[in-house]
Design a protein that fits this description.
Blueprint: H1 6-13, E1 22-27, E2 30-36, H2 39-48, H3 51-59, H4 62-71, H5 74-82, H6 89-112, H7 119-124, E3 147-149, E4 152-154, H8 157-167
Antiparallel strand pairs: 1-2, 3-4
Length: 176
């Protein structure tokens, strides 16, 4: 299983606005009256929705598309796609729900697990106590009041912003 960071896990588990919800149909133009606004809601609806709707959407790859683009979980979308076109009916329903439930549990665990700083970040940060002096991850200056960003410590917002912009890839210019 692919582990997401807390920010990504939170984004994936969020509730989306109703205009971005997944709307269940049994065929083109045949709306069931059901929609889902989160992965948990989606799984609940999959458990009780008409099998025609599941088979209709699965065959069109609608589930994967919504999970990838709206929910923002490419890993889960790929897992749903891997279930295969050979399953039908309740077997398909169960496989989809099990895959989603496992991912939800993994993401919730990520949210409750204490994060550990990567080794490369530990080297750049000297912990604050009487025997250590904190230094900025960008300029190396001593830090009185730290500014934090993704495991890095900075002496000022200016250093943090400079660090972030130095890591961003420049956007290609478009021809006019």
């Amino acid at each position: 299983m692919r582990i997401a960071d807390k920010e990504t896990a939170s984004k994936i588990l969020r509730e989306v606005p109703s205009n971005n919800a997944f709307y269940f149909f049994t065929s083109i133009g045949q709306y069931t009256g059901e929609y889902a606004t989160s992965l948990e809601d989606f799984c609940r609806k999959i458990r009780q929705i008409d099998l025609k709707s599941i088979e209709f959407h699965y065959g069109r790859e609608d589930f994967e598309k919504w999970i990838r683009t709206t929910v923002g979980d490419a890993y889960l979308a790929d897992k749903i796609k891997e279930i295969g076109k050979t399953l039908e009916g309740d077997q398909l329903r169960s496989a989809i729900c099990q895959t989603i439930e496992e991912r939800i549990a993994e993401l919730k665990k990520t949210l409750t697990t204490k994060s550990v700083m990567p080794k490369r970040s530990r080297k750049s940060i000297e912990l604050a106590d009487e025997t250590h002096i904190k230094r900025c991850s960008f300029c190396g200056n001593k830090i009185n009041t730290p500014t934090l960003y993704k495991g890095y410590v900075f002496c000022s917002t200016k250093c943090k912003d400079s660090f972030i912009s130095s890591r961003e890839k420049p956007k290609p210019k478009t021809a006019i």
